[in-house]
Amino acid sequence: MIREINVKEIEDAVAALCEDANLHLPCMMRETIESAAQREESPVCREVLGDIVSNIDCAAELNVPICQDTGMAVIFLEIGQDVHFTGGSLYEAINRGVAKGYVDGKLRLSVVKDPIRRGNTNDNTPAVIHTSVIDGDKVNIMVAPKGFGSENMSRIKMFTPSASTDDIVGFVTETVDIAGSNPCPPIVLGIGIGGDFEQCAYLAKKALCRDLRERNPDPYYAELEQRMLDEVNKTGIGSQGFGGTVTALYINIETAPTHIAGLPVAVNVGCHVTRHKQITL
After folding, report:
1. Which of 56, 98, 110, 154 lies at a 20 to 30 A Cα distance from 128?
2. β-pairing, 277-280 with 248-258?
3. How many domains does the chain have?
4. Residues 25-46: pLDDT tens digits?
């Protein structure tokens, strides 16, 4: 049986999620940073991590964004195949929701209409929208505002199948080394492995938004996540680049089948303000 959903519901949900994501970190992120401060060996970085926790608390108390870069709105939209949208264009409704959330929420407007000639759109649209069709009659919406201090540090490499896990771990660690303090560490990393060029990047962004309490369900990749985390934290970059034993808070890997001739790997870098909020309609 077909379920009808008016796109105004989508618009309102997206607007609320844009504001909520910028004001409140995902579940357990604050606790993860606080825990990192307790195991950090550098006194300076322990103090920096304490300041980050204080900033998170102040933002909640004052009801202001956690970070001044309120990001480009990335939308992960899962649509049940038994859903029919009414009341207009779905994508137009999503972008109206982004505009409403950013303008009415007094969030920084950071999107330009042309990549080279620039020109601010003045409402933070258009959003980057990833759509997939799932079973059922529900709609899952995740809004992930992505700041570009960390996004600019992301990389992709088209390995050949002869590449070893050492090569892949080395690429991830090299990416963090090159980034240094630019992405405001402590960082989080989303790693995409497999697919083709663009799917690999999508997997990395999706991995960045996975619940930080969840390890990859495949023990092989769960172990690789931990190995990458250990190696990244040996770089000595530390919080805000002041040196220390905690450079990354967690690393998530998402994978997909790929071509026999390829082994794409993408690293999507996120700062400690890696935000995402979701709702199911």
Report:
1. 56
2. unpaired
3. 2
4. 888 899 999 999 999 999 999 9
